[in-house]
Amino acid sequence: MLTLTENVTEIVKQLTDEVPEISALRIAAEPDGQALSVSPADQAAPTDQVIEQDGATVYVDGAAAEMLDQMVLDGGVDEDGNIQFALGQQA
């Protein structure tokens, strides 16, 4: 199962605190099956895996959950305020 770093949990909590209609981030596989998209979400889809960690919630669609099994999602905010995400292998 995908795990989240402290950086990502803080980013998700800040987003959901600042924008009431957002309850989580959602990670979904693109139709080509090779790329992932990350977007704000107000609720999980029926087949989403729900990851709750340290007060942050991330929804992961079924295809993305398979791709992200045993991965760690990290993130940060650059000097322009853009959120960037990165994936790594779980230790």
Structure description:
The chain is α/β, with parallel strands linked by helices and 91 residues long. It has one domain: Sandwich (Hypothetical Protein Aq_1857, Chain: A), CATH 2.60.300. It has helices at 6-18, 62-68, and strands spanning 3-4, 24-29, 36-41, 49-53, 56-60, 71-77, 83-89. Strands 3-2-5-4 form a four-stranded mixed beta sheet. A three-stranded mixed beta sheet has the order 1-6-7. The radius of gyration is 12 Å and the shape is globular. The two termini are 13 Å apart. 23% of the residues are buried.
**For the residues shown, what is the average pLDDT?**
93
* Count of alpha and pi helical runs: 2
Strand order of the largest sheet: 3-2-5-4
The chain-level structural class is: alpha/beta
The first-level CATH class is given as Mainly Beta
Stated plainly, the CATH topology is called: Hypothetical Protein Aq_1857, Chain: A
What's the architecture, going by CATH? Answer: Sandwich
CATH superfamily: HesB-like domain
- End-to-end C-alpha gap: 13 Å
Which residues form runs of ≥5 with pLDDT under 50?
A: none
Main β-sheet description = 4 strands, mixed
- The whole-angstrom Rg is 12 Å
Estimate the strand proportion: 35-45%
Question: How are helices and strands ordered from N to C?
Answer: EHEEEEHEE
Q: Indicate the percent of residues in helices.
A: 10-25%
Number of strand segments: 7
